[in-house]
């Protein structure tokens, strides 16, 4: 498997630290608002990457965090010492506790992951469940002489880090760094690049909802420390792959590296850094204030299967920005429906498996090899999709066709076997369940019961079409 490594700025062969195994971490959401279709491009990338690694035979341990404290409004602009805690801000706005805000948006996020057919990571970990681990890491940095205290918190000393022979900011993109440098840094910091590890609760009498005791007084962790503390806890001091959106490349990820390497003394913290490019909407930035920060719920509300969005993501390379429009989503939905039709109309029932001619065997193998070559080539998913289409339309035996579609779908995650209605809309879950029950009755030759279920389905506004050994529902 070859991937572009933002650290070496080259496409490189993945060589796991432990043979056959991959340890991978991906920066998860800050749970203070509903995740957007932009955020989901990044989470879909880590899902596709983990699926692809498993497909080619690795055992993958994937860890994802949920940021439920300490991410300040100024953090993404390059200075992690300024601004308001996003969770506390949302709490005021919505009139709920910060804890309820975190719980509500975490639950919503998990439900959306399911709608996007994103496999559950091996470990999902919350920052607030790992405060002691974060404190221990700051203590390690302190005893290694890499911290200093100013009026609002304990900070990481990037110059002291470099004096020890490490390099700060190897990952950074220069343009992004310049953008950050234009912001007014906290004048108490020794160096504008230094960042907060532990922040003190305000001394002006305002009370934070989320705060903890620490050796430095009551406060809360800086945004970056959770990822270093939790990734090393679950994956060890050094691991294989770290993924995230391209906006994290210039500040958050260099800070993760500095903290982990500064605390453990081991370099490199992560071998391969994978960054996904942003999703644009109508050719521009997506933003709540612009009214185009669409969510999975907006897509479902239009009767479009959220997996059409997954298909849309797969049509572009992860290192290039893609432009979302409702038209492009509609095209993706049409393509997905066609693929599902191809799968579902491929007749397999009652067909005896025949021994293959040499020519067909070669064709089947060639499709498999081409598909694997595409995903191993820095996740060339549009090429992988093209191989799927070519194979699905080819003249290889039906059995092999549907088998291979399901095989490829282990990486693509498009649920090609999901029942579809004639107009291409997804079939509601209750109807799907009834279709399955009817199938089971028919298999047991209980035709009376099967017929009753058919009538129930009709009462719900769908009729069934049995074709090619498969059943599909059609909206009346
Ligand atoms: P946040 O909740 O803002 O911390 O963002 C969560 C993740 O989504 C990060 O990995 C970001 O890089 C990513 N992200 C934010 N906006 C976009 C976008 N428009 N396209 C792709 N990824 C994004
Ligand atoms: Zn992170």
Q: How many helix segments?
A: 16
Under the CATH scheme, the architecture of the largest domain is 3-Layer(aba) Sandwich
CATH class of the largest domain, anyone?
Answer: Alpha Beta
What proportion strand?
A: 15-25%
The count of domains is 3
Low-confidence stretches: none
Overall spatial form: globular
List the strand order in the largest sheet. Answer: 5-4-3-10-11
CATH topology of the largest domain: Rossmann fold
Termini distance? 47 Å
Structural class: alpha/beta
Q: Please identify the oligomeric state.
A: single chain
What do we call the CATH homologous superfamily of the largest domain?
HUPs
Biggest pleated sheet: 5 strands, parallel
How many strand units?
A: 15
Rg from C-alpha positions? 25 Å
What brief labels describe this structure?
476 residues; alpha/beta; Rossmann fold; five-stranded parallel β-sheet; four-stranded antiparallel β-sheet; 43% helix; binds adenosine monophosphate; binds zinc ion
At a glance:
With 476 residues, this protein is α/β, with parallel strands linked by helices.
Descriptive overview:
The chain has 3 domains: 2-276, Rossmann fold, CATH 3.40.50; 281-412, no CATH class; 429-475. It starts with a strand and ends with a strand. The protein has helices spanning 37-55, 86-94, 98-115, 131-143, 158-163, 174-181, 225-235, 252-264, 296-301, 306-314, 326-344, 358-376, 381-392, 398-412, 429-443, 447-459, and strands at residues 2-5, 10-13, 21-26, 59-66, 123-126, 147-150, 153-156, 195-200, 219-221, 239-245, 270-276, 279-281, 322-324, 462-467, 470-475. It is an alpha/beta fold and 476 residues long. Helix content is 43%, strand content 16%. The mean pLDDT is 91. It is built from 16 helices and 15 strands. The strands form 5 sheets. The chain has a 5-stranded parallel β-sheet with strand order 5-4-3-10-11. Strands 6-7-8-9 form a 4-stranded antiparallel β-sheet. Bound molecules: adenosine monophosphate and zinc ion. Adenosine monophosphate is lined by residues 27, 29-30, 38-39, 41-42, 244-245, 247-248, 278-279, 286.
């Amino acid at each position: 498997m070859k991937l572009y490594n933002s650290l070496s700025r080259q496409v490189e062969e993945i060589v796991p630290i432990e043979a056959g195994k991959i340890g991978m971490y991906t920066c998860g959401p800050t749970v203070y608002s509903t995740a957007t279709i932009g955020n989901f491009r990044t989470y879909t990338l880590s899902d596709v990457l983990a699926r692809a690694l498993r497909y080619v035979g690795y055992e993958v341990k994937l860890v994802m965090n949920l940021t439920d404290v300490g991410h300040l409004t100024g953090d993404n602009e390059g200075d992690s010492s300024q601004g308001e805690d996003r969770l506390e801000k949302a709490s005021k706005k919505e009139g709920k506790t910060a804890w309820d805000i975190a719980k509500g948006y975490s639950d919503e996020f998990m439900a959306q992951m399911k709608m996007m057919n994103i496999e559950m990571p091996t470990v999902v970990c919350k920052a607030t469940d790992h405060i002691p681990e974060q404190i221990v890491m700051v203590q390690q940095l302190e005893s290694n002489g890499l911290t200093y205290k100013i009026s609002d918190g304990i900070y990481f000393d990037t110059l002291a880090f470099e004096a020890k022979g490490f390099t700060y900011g190897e990952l950074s993109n220069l343009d992004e760094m310049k953008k950050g440098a234009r912001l007014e840094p906290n004048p108490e910091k020794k160096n504008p690049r230094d960042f907060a590890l532990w922040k003190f609760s305000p001394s002006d009498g305002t009370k934070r909802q989320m705060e903890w005791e620490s050796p430095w007084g009551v406060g809360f962790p800086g945004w970056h420390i959770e990822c270093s503390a939790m990734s090393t806890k679950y994956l060890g001091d050094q691991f294989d792959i770290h993924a995230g959106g391209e906006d994290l490349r210039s500040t958050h990820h260099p800070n993760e590296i500095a903290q982990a390497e500064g605390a453990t003394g081991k370099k490199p913290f992560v071998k391969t850094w994978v960054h996904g490019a942003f999703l644009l909407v109508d050719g521009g930035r997506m933003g709540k204030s612009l009214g185009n920060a669409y969510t999975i719920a907006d897509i479902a509300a239009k009767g479009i299967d959220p997996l059409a969005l997954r298909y849309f993501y797969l049509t572009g390379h992860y290192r290039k920005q893609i432009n979302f429009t409702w038209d492009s989503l509609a095209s993706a939905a049409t393509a997905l429906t066609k693929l599902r039709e191809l799968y579902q109309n491929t007749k397999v029932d009652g067909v005896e498996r025949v021994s293959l001619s040499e020519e067909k065997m070669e064709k089947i193998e060639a499709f498999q090899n081409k598909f694997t070559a595409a995903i191993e080539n820095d996740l060339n998913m549009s090429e992988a999709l093209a191989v799927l289409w070519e194979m699905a339309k080819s003249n290889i035996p039906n059995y092999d066709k549907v088998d291979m579609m399901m095989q490829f779908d282990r990486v693509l995650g498009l649920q090609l076997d999901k029942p579809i209605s004639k107009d291409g809309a997804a079939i509601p879950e209750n109807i799907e369940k009834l279709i399955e029950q009817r199938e089971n009755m028919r298999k047991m030759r209980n035709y009376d019961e099967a017929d009753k279920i058919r009538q129930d389905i009709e009462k719900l506004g769908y009729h069934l079409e049995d074709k090619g050994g498969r059943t599909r529902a059609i909206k009346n």
